[in-house]
Design goal:
The chain contains ten helices and twelve strands. By secondary structure, it is of the alpha/beta class. It has an eight-stranded parallel β-sheet, with helices on one face.
Length: 394
């Protein structure tokens, strides 16, 4: 057996063995999940702003049942991302206590702005170092946590606990997971054996984080991707759900339409099995990060018409959505530069109603009916039609 094949088998064996053994920790526990309704399109918000939000912005954020405060929130005028996040979260909760708020932490990338980073100075060799001595392994400019180092995992969990213990925070958003579990990512730089130890460290980090959060806090990760053999389903076992992005950039020798259809199938299956899904779509291209997929075979076509693109993405969501699935349409996460910030598309206000059953599929064409809308989607041509039966506010 070739060494690469052997390592691949070990990689997925390690993943499934550890996560299967630990999955029972998350069973039969009622988290404080966000409210959900089919009355209109269920929405999610994912945002960052490096200074404080205005009251109008807080009021807007409080209209979402679920939101994640991304990295860099409020660090310029609150002193750190932790304090900026807590300030914003407490303000939103004062307006709407039912909004569920997730605190963002990347599992491998060291971003600036966090007060907790100061404590890393007391840990021996906290970052991965390439076999050539290179230190900034993420996009050639950012360091990567060495999750095989127990002291780093302990630091990561403790720093997350310091924020998640606050009553304004309902759970944790884990980003960067794809970078850890993708077999090829950083393997050349750190070597295959170190890559395996990194994966092992990640699975232990998830277990330790779940135990830290306790029974009432949510844990959502950026993991469900068609790029994996099982679309990342094995990694959902210790989580409450998945954020989904980058679902149109086909990885490997597969067509865009087959890749998208596989991702949709994974979304449908996970949602039907009870996972919370935050389906996040960018007006423009939804591609994998280049540093995660150097072999990416083309990507989504750029659709110039914003309404056409928005309609297509919403149709894709509606085809797949189940209870506790939420939709986020954005043009970037920074509130200061987004043209969609503080705006809500008219179709989000239209009556939707519950689905009349699961979607039907004919090749790359999907159909699904709701009480007040009919959805038709063609992934191959990137066309969609949503027939709304009632105007907004009815």
């Amino acid at each position: 057996m070739r060494i690469t094949t052997l390592l691949a088998a070990l990689f997925w064996g390690l993943t499934n063995g550890l996560l299967t053994a630990e999955s029972s920790l998350g069973e039969d526990v009622q988290r404080k999940w966000p409210a959900f309704s089919w009355d209109t399109v269920p929405l999610y918000m994912h945002v960052r702003k490096d200074t404080a939000y205005t009251q109008d912005e807080i009021d807007y954020l409080a209209t979402f049942p679920l939101l994640t405060f991304e990295k860099s929130n409020g660090h310029r005028d609150s002193g750190s991302t932790e304090e900026g996040t807590l300030k914003a979260a407490r303000a939103v909760k004062a307006v709407n206590p039912e909004t569920r708020i997730l605190y963002y932490r990347n599992v491998i990338v060291e971003y600036g702005g966090y007060a907790a980073s100061q404590s890393l100075k007391g840990i021996s060799k906290p970052f991965l170092v390439g076999e050539n001595g290179k230190k900034n392994l993420i996009r050639n400019r950012l360091p990567a946590y060495d999750l095989s180092n127990k002291a780093v995992r302990d630091w990561w969990v403790d720093s997350a606990e310091g924020v998640c213990a606050d009553s304004s925070i309902d759970g944790l958003f884990l980003d960067g997971v794809v970078k850890v579990v993708e077999q090829g990512y950083l393997r050349r730089e750190v070597g295959p054996e170190k890559k395996l130890r990194l994966l092992s460290g990640y699975t232990r980090l998830v277990k330790e984080t779940r135990e830290m959060l306790g029974p009432n806090k949510m844990m959502v990760a950026n993991i469900l991707r068609a790029r994996f053999p099982d679309s990342g389903a094995s990694y959902l076992r210790m989580l409450d759900g998945s954020y989904i992005e980058g679902f149109e950039g086909a990885v490997g020798k597969v067509s865009r339409e087959d890749y998208v259809a596989k991702g949709m199938e994974a979304f449908q299956k996970a949602a039907r099995e009870g996972s919370l899904i935050a389906f996040t779509c960018r007006l423009g291209e939804n591609l994998q990060d280049a540093d995660e997929a150097p072999e990416m075979a083309g990507g989504a076509n750029k659709l110039v018409d914003e309404n056409h693109r928005a309609n297509y993405l919403l149709a894709m969501f509606l085809v797949c959505a189940e209870e506790h699935s939420y939709f986020c349409l954005h043009d970037g996460y920074d509130a200061k530069t987004s043209k969609l910030w503080l705006k809500r598309r008219p179709e989000f206000e239209r009556p939707l109603g519950p689905p009349q059953g699961p979607a039907t599929r004919d090749g790359y064409r999907f159909s699904r009916d709701f009480a007040h809308a009919s959805v038709r989607l063609d992934v191959e041509s990137e066309e969609a039609k949503i027939i709304w039966k009632q105007p907004a506010g009815k």
